[in-house]
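Workshop exercise sheet. Pairs work together: one partner reads the sequence aloud, the other fills in the structure field after running the prediction. Swap roles for the next sheet.
Pair: D.N. / O.F.
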Amino acid sequence: MSGEYSLSTLSGSYASLGIARLTAQEETYVQRRTQGVNPSAAARAAGYKYPARAVAELSEREDINLAISYMREMQRQVAVQAGAIEFTKDDATALYLEAHAKSATAMEEIRAVDSLVKLHGLATPEKVEVNITNRSQMETMDDEQLLKMAGQDIQLSPDEYKVTRDED
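Structure field:
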């Protein structure tokens, strides 16, 4: 596949989204909007006689908006899989800084700053003093308590799992 999904390929998937079959004109509009064409130009390309009226009507339709979102997500996934999209730490930083600049409340600002601190590894781990007086205290702790006591935080992602075989 060339990196773009065609509507003929995806129109069958609309049913799973709860979208009734779109007309050829609607599909063309959705495709053009997914390609980044502005709504009026997309309506003209789709052959609507009155593009402004068509845009007003189509923009209110949940099925059209859902189809556009779906198509954009499919194209994004193809681009990511093809390696055409690379998201770096610098990209994330720029987005967090933009979110911080747009924040309306102090809490939104704090969340953006906290995310930046975490992204750049600037937070120092909390020091926890642990008083263990005998081995049995540790034997009764679960893994989470032991890790917390050791100051470790393990976050596993299913994508990072590896299958290993025990050899006897």
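Discussion prompt: Residues 7-81 form one domain. What would you look at next?
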